[in-house]
Every structure is written in C-alpha cells, then in structure tokens.
C-alpha cells in the first residue's frame, strides 16, 4: 500500500492505448474537411481517376494493375468516402460548438448593450426634466432684454 501525497504530481503511467490529442485531431479534421470542399480537391480527384482509368485501359496488359471494371478504384473511392464523411461531420460539430459559444457571447453583449441604452435613456430623461427647472441662456437673454426695455421706458 503506497501513500500518495496530494502535493506531489502523480507519476506518469504507461498505457497500452495510444494517446491522441482530441483538439489537434479536430483541427486536422477541419483542415481536411475544408480541403474536401474546394474546387482544387475536385480537380485533383478528377485527374487522379482519369489517369487511373486511362492507365488501366491504354497500358500494356502486364502494366495494368486494375483492369476494367476497375474494382480497386471503386474500393479506393469508397475508402476515401468512408473517411471523408466522419471527418466532415466532426468538423461540422466543432463549428456548431464555436457558433454556439459565439451566439452566447453575442447574446450577453446584446443584453449589456440594452442595459446601457436603458440607463442612458433614463439619464437623458432625467436631464430633460432637470433642464426644465434650469434657466436657459435664451430665456435669461430674453428676460434681460425685457428688463432693459422696462428700464429705458421709465423716466
């Protein structure tokens, strides 16, 4: 029975399972999915398939490695599709998670902005009410002109 100290890190245990970083794998899957959705990938795949078919039709019999009906090509394309679909789904799930976080942050920001707008609206309303009680420059000027006229009219 060994006593483990809580103030010391645990010793690394060797495991038979391979270690992988899910975040790094997710970033890699996103890069692959992004590439699979480009015109460049479609051109590459088209060229690859065309070269494969042309080689196996035109090349001499001993150099053909996948004669018609191109079973090995079909297998390769099926294998590519079977890996592409989960990678694309993984990338979409990661994007959904990012979108959800962004939506929550946007909602929080919108709530803060709404609260600030309401506060400023109340402040402006309070200033308008206070301005009703304060003598404005125009009002003071008009009163001084009226008093000046009253003084000029008196003998």
Short description:
By secondary structure, the chain is mostly helical. The protein has 4 helices and no strands.
Structural description of this entry:
The chain is mainly α. Helices cover 74% and strands 0% of the residues. It has 4 helices and no strands.
Record the SSE blueprint.
Layout: H1 22-36, H2 39-58, H3 71-133, H4 137-153
Helix pairs in contact: 1-3
Which properties best describe this structure?
single chain, 155 residues, mainly alpha, 4 helices, 74% helix, 0% strand, elongated
The domain tally reads 1
Separation, N- and C-terminal Cα atoms: 116 Å
Query: Biggest sheet, in brief?
Result: none
Give the overall form.
Answer: elongated
SS strand fraction: under 5%
Estimated radius of gyration: 39 Å
Determine the number of helices (DSSP H or I, runs of at least 4 residues).
4
Roughly what percent helix? over 70%
Query: If you average the pLDDT, what whole number results?
Result: 88
- Elements, N to C (H/E): HHHH
Number of strands: 0
The low-confidence runs, each spanning 5 or more residues with pLDDT under 50, are: none
Structural class designation: mainly alpha
